[in-house]
Each structure stands twice: as C-alpha cells, then as structure tokens.
Design a protein that fits this description.
The protein is mainly alpha-helical. The protein contains eight helices and four strands; from the N terminus they run H-H-H-H-H-H-E-E-H-E-E-H. The protein has a two-stranded antiparallel ribbon.
C-alpha cells in the first residue's frame, strides 16, 4: 500500500521484519528478557499502530502495560536500535497511508475488496487496519477460488486461521 502511494520502496526495517519475523522476535525477547509471546504481541501491536507510552487515556499504551515502562523507555532511548527504527518507520507508513486516503474522502475509506468504512472521526489505525484487512480478504478469496476451481484436492487447505474444505469433515476426525 505504501509503495503504491509513494512509488518508494518499503522501509528496510519493515521489509526485514517480514522476511525475518521469527528471528527478530527471538532476538527481541532475548534482549529484553521477555517471552516470545510478549515479543510477538509487541510487534503485532506496532503493525496495528500502537504507540509507546502515549495512546490511551492514562498516557500509557497497551504495549507499555504489557512490556512495562522500563522496557519501553529503553526502546525509546536507543534511537539506533532496530525496534526503535521499526517503530518510527511504521508510524511513517501509517501517516503516508492515512494522509493519502484522507485527501480522497474524510468521511470514508473504500477497501481493496470494495467494503466501505464510514468514519465519524478520522483514526489512522482504523483506516490502515481496514485497508490491511480488505487486502487480506482479497488474497484469501483468491486462494479459496483457486483451491475450489483449479485443484483436484478433496482434503482441505489451511487459509490463515481456518480450514476450507470441499466436503464436510467430522470434527472428531479433524481433531
């Protein structure tokens, strides 16, 4: 989406995360002495627009609550760390995408799948999440269409977090 709008390459921090997600999560967990689940939560939150220290009514984000202020402050203080640079690049990405769609229409965003998100107030994270999810739904629909029309497979295909089958499966058999 960013590249489509700007014509620029996706920032290298984001590209590196996409390619090396598991390794980066492991390094982050080890660096800060946290679980892999907490590490995954941190990166997932970033990619959905979470801010560090500042996005809830008490001035603390969900990430800060989850990781603790000490870790978040360490991230914010080291402006050369990968996680800090990733945080900044994601927010740049959100700004670019949000500003682009706001110029088109301040009251709604039409997703890649044609679904329209109507907005009473403009929220960058809602706009970007809507676009992500609409693009994901197009990809998933394409996968299902390919599976059902182009393959002779009668078992199942795992699509994201669900199973899609051409025939009914007994849940006990599936288990």
């Amino acid at each position: 989406i960013y590249k489509e709008i700007t014509g620029e390459k996706v920032p290298s921090t984001i590209k590196d995360f996409i390619i090396n997600k598991k390794m980066i999560r492991e390094i982050f967990a080890q660096k800060y002495g946290i679980s892999l689940d907490k590490s995954k939560e941190f990166f997932t939150s970033l990619f959905f627009g979470s801010r560090l220290l500042s996005n809830d009514k008490k001035g603390r984000s969900a990430v800060t609550v989850s990781l603790g202020e000490k870790i978040v402050n360490s991230i914010l203080l080291d402006e050369t760390s990968y996680e800090y640079l990733l945080y900044k690049d994601i927010h740049k990405l959100f700004d670019v995408i949000s500003n682009h769609y706001r110029k088109i229409d301040k009251t709604k965003v039409v997703g890649y799948n044609g679904h329209t998100l109507k907005l009473n107030e403009w929220k960058k994270s809602s706009v970007v999440a809507h676009l992500y999810q609409s693009l994901e739904s197009k990809v998933l629909d394409s996968m299902i269409k390919f599976y059902t029309t182009k393959t002779n497979d009668y078992n199942y295909v795992r699509v994201h977090d669900c199973l899609y089958t051409k025939k009914e499966i007994d849940t006990a058999e599936l288990y």
